[in-house]
């Protein structure tokens, strides 16, 4: 966008006057914050108007990305960057007496997601919009996003995240497009002139009101929207009840409806079959599909051609109700016969799987399902009946597999099976993960639908994670290879020519140093601990889960501590940095946080190890904090048990910022390894076949304890209450008796690779060379590349 500093100033002054009635000299920071956001939002709306006009003429196929989660983070800087207005806005704001950096800091993260899956959805909105594809995201306008985390005595405590107070500036309500969603009630069949008709009556109605959050592409005409639904009561306030004095009763239906969009479920990679969650899913699916169908019918006389004009992409199974809901619309509202409706549905829907963890594969109790969604249940039953018949008749060799492939089994609706049965495309999120889907989880499906399963390796929004988050590195890269990489990340490859250039390498080292100093300042402010910015920054930031093995990392730190203290180990000074939210009901995850914090308390105050080790747990890990951490990371810990992390995307973000990966052959680590070669990454531990073999043989963690003296030393120390006199019996007994993700089995290999890391770090030049090589080869992990894979192989195939 072309606007001068002068023009921006005029807009700001005018808006400040009209919104708050003040001139700049009288305004507070908060008023200026509101003013800047309002001005940017108006520009987005204007640009969106022009884009929609163009779309109408061209009428391309629309992509609808259905996701219960979008981890948007902050939008102001991203929008200014994408509109190419950041320097001008900075000056305009400064000339009015304010500081744009301070205004950036006032913006809350829009934390409408838990972790990887939600952040991926946001990275994809950015990529698709920059590339000019008409993608609309659909989700819920949660009043409270992912909880705020505080650590009290090592224990995680959750606080509500009231993001709308300062974040609602970005949302435009579209009351004119509100729709109704029906729950509960009775389903009956009636004969009419058109044949047998299904009637859903006595339902409970909820009104869905859309709020649009606009996303501008970078140097592109496109402005797409993320449409977030808010729930409210569809029945007008019951004045009769109210005047009879039944205040509470009259408000009950309001509260019941509003509860649907109240709060994001804070569980990641595992599900709880809660009624409210099912209502959330149906609410946003039904509202979105009604909206999509109406939009299609404004441009087309019929829904017959829906699959030619629309793809509805299901982001994990949370929106799997798209399958029966699209069927319901076609059958009940638009009078289609089953076969034709099924054909349209199957050719319109595509599904991405993000996990093979069994506790995350959604299943709904059939009775609960029927109670809330009676009509949808009859449709799922019919889908299942027909599917099982088809297998029985057409694939006799698969008759034995019918019970496990069915959409309904063991009294539950199985959402993943439902998706694979219906969708025309099913993809995993890294090569390894997609192979596991084909060879294991969905093997029977792959045998009968040979072209359905495919792979799209995840990617990240490099413009956010490099250009906005790491301005120092970005300007160095621009100086060396120009700015083409902003739009084509593969251009980073050109950096390889500088791998032996001492000046470039030392400049890269200086930049890392300054980013570490920046993070050290934050740590000192947030945790009250001074860390040495010259020590190696070793980072593990992600959701807390046993399979991600933060505990193995912590055990190894304790091992280093004991070696320094008892055996005179000398090593390069290290700062271990953790950030992780635990699902509030996940006890072991919270115990692991307590363990890490206890470990930190003990180590950080021990002057006898002369600052060789520090352990920092950064509370409230979120997108905006990640933007500060990644540029400062030197080691990227990606140490999940092989076969468990579907892809990982933090691994890509740290690589792009020059950190070296220390990881297992899991998820996208394998593809990072393929890109950088074995000399530029630190790989350890069992790979997936080895894990499976050990599992089959029978894994006995106690044996590792008995045979590996380091493991024994560490666990004995914990058992004796060595960590601040604290009791970590839960952890010790879990490790000795269970160790579900084989941390002890991989410990020795992990320990040894850390020694290698320590040796390599002594040679700064070699380290910087490896770092530059990683940056140069990270281009493939751009979200733009992932989007093009979706475009070529799934959406516009
Ligand atoms: C995550 C995966 O755990 C992670 O490996 C992957 O990178 C990410 O999705 C994006 O694909 N999964 C989730 O966040 N949640 C669920 C339910 O899978």
Automatic annotation (TrEMBL):
GO MF term list: glycogen phosphorylase activity; pyridoxal phosphate binding
Residues that span the membrane, as ranges: none
GO process annotations (BP): glycogen catabolic process
Location of N6-(pyridoxal phosphate)lysine modifications: 653
A Pfam family hit: Phosphorylase
Xref: InterPro entries: Glycg_phsphrylas, Glyco_trans_35, Pyridoxal_P_attach_site
Catalysis performed (reactions): [(1->4)-alpha-D-glucosyl](n) + phosphate = [(1->4)-alpha-D-glucosyl](n-1) + alpha-D-glucose 1-phosphate
Cofactor(s) required for function per UniProt: pyridoxal 5'-phosphate
UniProt function note: Phosphorylase is an important allosteric enzyme in carbohydrate metabolism. Enzymes from different sources differ in their regulatory mechanisms and in their natural substrates. However, all known phosphorylases share catalytic and structural properties. Allosteric enzyme that catalyzes the rate-limiting step in glycogen catabolism, the phosphorolytic cleavage of glycogen to produce glucose-1-phosphate, and plays a central role in maintaining cellular and organismal glucose homeostasis.
Family, per entry: Belongs to the glycogen phosphorylase family.
GO annotations of cellular component type: cytoplasm
Principal EC category: transferase
Alphabetized PROSITE patterns for the sequence: PHOSPHORYLASE
Keywords: Carbohydrate metabolism, Glycogen metabolism, Glycosyltransferase, Pyridoxal phosphate, Transferase
Protein name: Alpha-1,4 glucan phosphorylase
Enzyme Commission code: 2.4.1.1
NCBIfam families cross-referenced by the UniProt entry: P_ylase
Lineage, uppermost ranks: Bacteria, Bacillati, Bacillota, Clostridia, Eubacteriales
């Amino acid at each position: 966008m072309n606007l001068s500093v002068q023009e921006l100033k005029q807009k700001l002054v005018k808006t400040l006057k009209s919104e708050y009635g003040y001139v700049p000299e009288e305004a507070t920071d908060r008023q200026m914050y509101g003013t800047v956001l309002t001005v940017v939002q108006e520009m987005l709306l204007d640009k969106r108007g022009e884009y929609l006009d163009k779309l109408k003429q061209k009428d391309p196929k629309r992509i609808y990305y259905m996701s219960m989660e979008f981890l948007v983070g902050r939008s102001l800087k991203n929008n200014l960057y994408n509109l190419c207005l950041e320097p001008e806005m900075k000056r305009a704001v400064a000339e009015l007496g304010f500081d744009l950096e301070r205004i950036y800091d006032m913006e809350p993260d829009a934390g409408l997601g838990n972790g990887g899956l939600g952040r991926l959805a946001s990275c994809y909105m950015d990529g698709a919009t920059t590339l000019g594809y008409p993608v609309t995201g659909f989700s819920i306008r949660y009043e409270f996003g992912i909880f705020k985390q505080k650590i009290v005595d090592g224990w995680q405590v959750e606080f509500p995240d009231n993001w709308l107070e300062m974040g609602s500036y970005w949302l435009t309500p579209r009351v004119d497009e509100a729709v109704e969603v029906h729950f509960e009630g009775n389903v009956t069949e009636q004969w009419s002139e058109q044949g047998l008709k299904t009637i859903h009556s006595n339902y409970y109605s909820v009104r869905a009101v859309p709020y649009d959050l606009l996303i501008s592409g970078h140097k592109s005409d496109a402005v797409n929207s993320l449409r977030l639904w808010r729930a409210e009561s569809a029945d007008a306030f019951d004045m009769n009840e109210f005047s009879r004095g039944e205040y509470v009763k009259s408000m009950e239906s309001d509260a019941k409806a509003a509860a649907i969009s109240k709060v994001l479920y804070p569980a990641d990679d595992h599900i709880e079959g809660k009624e409210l969650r099912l209502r959330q899913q149906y609410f946003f699916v039904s509202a979105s599909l009604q909206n999509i169908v109406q939009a299609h019918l404004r441009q087309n006389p019929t829904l017959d051609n829906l699959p030619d004009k629309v793809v509805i992409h299901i982001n994990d199974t949370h929106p799997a109700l798209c399958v029966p809901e699209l069927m319901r619309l076609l059958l009940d509202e638009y009078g289609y016969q089953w076969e034709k409706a099924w054909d349209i549905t199957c050719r319109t829907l595509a599904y991405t799987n993000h996990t093979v963890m069994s506790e995350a594969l959604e299943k709904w109790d059939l009775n609960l399902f029927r109670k809330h969604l009676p009509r949808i249940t009859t449709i799922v039953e019919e889908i299942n009946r027909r599917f099982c018949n088809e297998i029985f008749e057409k694939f006799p060799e698969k008759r034995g597999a019918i019970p496990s492939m069915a959409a309904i089994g063991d009294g539950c609706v199985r959402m993943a099976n439902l998706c694979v049965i219906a969708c025309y495309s099913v993809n995993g999120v890294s090569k390894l993960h997609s192979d596991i889907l084909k060879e294991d989880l969905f093997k029977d499906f792959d045998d009968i639908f040979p072209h359905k399963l495919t792979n799209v390796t995840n990617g990240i929004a490099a413009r956010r994670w490099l250009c906005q988050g790491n301005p120092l590195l970005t300007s160095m890269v621009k100086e060396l290879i120009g700015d083409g990489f902003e739009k084509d990340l593969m251009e980073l490859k050109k950096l390889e020519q500088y791998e032996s250039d001492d000046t470039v390498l030392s400049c890269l080292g200086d930049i890392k140093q300054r980013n570490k100093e920046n993070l050290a300042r934050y740590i000192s402010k947030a945790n009250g601990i001074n860390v040495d910015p010259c020590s190696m920054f070793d980072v593990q930031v992600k959701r807390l889960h046993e399979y991600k093995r933060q505990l193995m990392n912590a055990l190894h730190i304790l091992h280093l501590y004991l070696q320094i203290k008892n055996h005179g180990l000398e090593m390069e000074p290290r700062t271990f940095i953790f950030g992780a939210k635990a699902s509030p009901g996940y006890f072991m995850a919270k115990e692991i946080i307590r363990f890490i914090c206890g470990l930190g308390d003990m180590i950080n105050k021990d002057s006898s190890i002369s600052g060789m080790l520090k352990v920092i747990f950064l509370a409230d890990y979120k997108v905006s904090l990640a933007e500060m951490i990644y540029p400062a990371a030197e080691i990227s810990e990606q140490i999940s048990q092989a076969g468990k992390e579907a892809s990982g995307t933090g691994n890509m973000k740290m690589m792009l910022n020059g950190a070296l990966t220390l990881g297992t052959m899991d998820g996208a680590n394998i593809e990072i390894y393929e890109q950088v070669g074995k000399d530029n990454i630190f790989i350890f531990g069992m790979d997936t076949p080895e894990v499976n073999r050990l599992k089959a043989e029978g894994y006995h963690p106690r044996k590792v304890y008995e045979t590996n003296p380091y493991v024994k030393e560490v666990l004995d120390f914990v058992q004796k209450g060595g960590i601040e006199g604290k009791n970590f019996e839960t952890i010790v007994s879990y490790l000795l008796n269970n160790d579900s993700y084989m941390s002890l089995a991989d410990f020795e290999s992990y320990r040894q690779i850390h020694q290698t890391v320590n040796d390599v770090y002594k040679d700064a030049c070699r380290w910087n060379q490896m770092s530059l090589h990683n940056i140069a080869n990270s281009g493939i992990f751009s979200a733009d590349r992932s989007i093009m894979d979706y475009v070529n192989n799934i959406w516009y195939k």
